[in-house]
Specification:
Layout: H1 7-23, H2 25-34, H3 39-47, H4 67-81, H5 83-103, H6 106-118, E1 123-126, E2 142-146, E3 149-160, E4 167-173, E5 183-189, E6 196-200, E7 211-222, E8 226-227, H7 233-269, E9 271-272, E10 275-276, H8 281-309, H9 316-341, H10 343-346, H11 352-359, H12 369-380
Parallel strand pairs: 1-4
Antiparallel strand pairs: 2-3, 3-7, 4-5, 5-8, 6-7, 9-10
Helix pairs in contact: 1-4, 4-5, 4-7, 4-8, 5-6, 5-7, 7-8, 7-9, 7-11, 8-9, 9-11, 9-12
Bound molecules: glutaryl-coenzyme A.
Length: 388
């Protein structure tokens, strides 16, 4: 493995950092406070090609072999400025775009993928339900074929972008009695079908990403919007989560790095007892731990991206290593930053309070820390292979 970024990747990272510094950092706290979803920033990210890295050129993307690594670099840089805005990578192409690319027919690919890459369409995916979070097979949403349409009924929740999204990848049982072989996947144009309503959910963090419930009430979805084969839904879910978890890992690295940046600045500016607070060894202990852990989390994330770029999209083990560890590191880094900044960390004058609220999401979203540990331990013990 080559640990160095290519010249092209360094330039892309630099470009993303300066975009984030100019267009996101000055507003991130205000947007968070106002629960404002900056659609215009997502549009600009689309124009800059941020969502095209994992998509081949024929569908509007730029992937020529290092797409996952590039997506990882971009996700980290954007999350470093705002964890909320990082969510867009998964909602545009790492989730819906890649699912359509892998399982869709030519018409579906041509119709939807370029619009997700450009962000002309806002995407989302709906797995979780009020009574089915970690236990995906417990979902209750059904899709029943009726002539040329599937009729969807059920409630999805914790869907990022739900209230604004144009396109949603929805998982529902077509043959519930078949359990893992009875779930299917649908591309639902939320604004072009009847019988869909959404509700906004209040959250303690990641507040400039809108999260909501989507309620399907006899929603008629054209039959041609079935994605792939009936019965393949559960396979689609797990193969898709295995890609989106990578962007989560990169997002966690970005938030942890932002914490480290903040404490580094603070420690060399703030003076107490006649010296910079960076001179105190208890702070140095926390800073050293943060620096090592951020770099270790980044390398685990790069490893998973590197494997995917070599065609190993089923690297569930290494993706869980990265997602689990990076989530823990982000939470620890935010906690240390809070301790080092003291009352300034707790105040809204510094972004550390936002990082603190955003960091813990990475221990929950797209498979909790405990679920990642379960995947890792089951593989380690030989009970269930993670890479399949
Ligand atoms: O063999 P089978 O017919 O029994 O089917 C199993 C297997 O083939 C079935 O799923 C299939 N499968 C896979 N297929 C392809 C499982 N893993 C894979 C894979 N990697 N590739 C059930 O498999 P199982 O091994 O019996 O799994 P399980 O014991 O039911 O569950 C395992 C586990 C707990 C790890 C899994 O369910 C899991 O990862 N749960 C966490 C789900 C999760 O991450 N939920 C969050 C969704 S994200 C969201 O809703 C909100 C965030 C998005 C947003 O921001 O909008």
């Amino acid at each position: 493995m080559d640990f160095a970024l290519t010249e092209e990747q360094k330039a892309m990272q630099e470009m993303a950092r300066s975009f984030a510094d100019n267009e996101i950092v000055p507003f991130a706290d205000k947007w968070d406070e106002e629960h404002y979803y900056p659609r215009e920033i997502v549009t600009k990210m689309g124009e800059l090609g941020f969502f095209g890295t994992v998509i081949p050129e024929e569908y509007g993307g730029t992937n020529t072999g290092s797409g996952f690594m590039n997506m990882t670099i971009l996700s980290e840089e954007i999350a470093r400025a705002s964890s909320s805005i990082r969510v867009a990578f998964n909602m545009q192409t790492v989730g819906p775009g890649l699912s359509i690319l892998r399982y869709g027919n030519d018409t579906q690919k041509q119709q939807y993928i370029p619009l997700l890459v450009s962000a002309d369409m806002v995407g989302c995916f709906a797995i979780t339900e009020p009574d089915a979070g970690s236990d995906v097979l417990a979902i209750k949403t059904t899709a029943v074929l009726d002539g040329d349409h599937y009729v969807l009924n059920g409630t999805k929740t914790w869907v990022s972008n739900a209230p604004t999204a144009d396109l949603c990848i929805v998982y529902a049982y077509t043959e519930p009695e078949k359990k893992s072989k009875g779930m299917s996947t649908f591309i639902v144009e939320l604004k072009n079908v009847s019988g869909v309503s959404t509700q906004v959910l209040e959250k303690m963090g990641t507040r400039s990403s809108i999260t909501g419930a989507v309620i399907f009430d006899d929603t008629r979805v054209p039959r041609e919007n079935l994605l792939g084969e009936p019965g393949d839904g559960i396979k689609h879910i797990f193969t898709s989560l295995n890609q989106t978890r990578l962007s989560c890992a990169a997002g966690a690295v970005g938030v942890a790095q932002a914490c480290l940046d903040s404490v580094t600045r603070y420690c060399t500016e703030r003076v107490q007892f006649g010296q910079q607070v960076g001179q105190f060894q208890m702070n140095q202990d926390m800073i050293a731990n943060m620096a090592v852990e951020v770099q270790a989390a980044r390398l685990l994330t790069y490893q998973a991206a590197w494997q995917k770029d070599r065609g190993q999209l089923n690297n569930g083990l290494e993706t869980s290593y990265a997602k689990y560890f990076a989530g823990e590191v982000a939470a620890r880094a935010a906690h240390s930053a809070m301790k080092i900044l003291g009352a300034y960390g707790y105040s809204t004058e510094y972004p550390v309070a936002r990082y603190f609220r955003d960091a813990v999401l990475y221990q929950i979203v797209e498979g909790t820390a405990n679920i990642q540990k379960m995947i890792i331990a089951m593989d380690q013990l030989g009970y269930r292979k993670a890479n399949r």
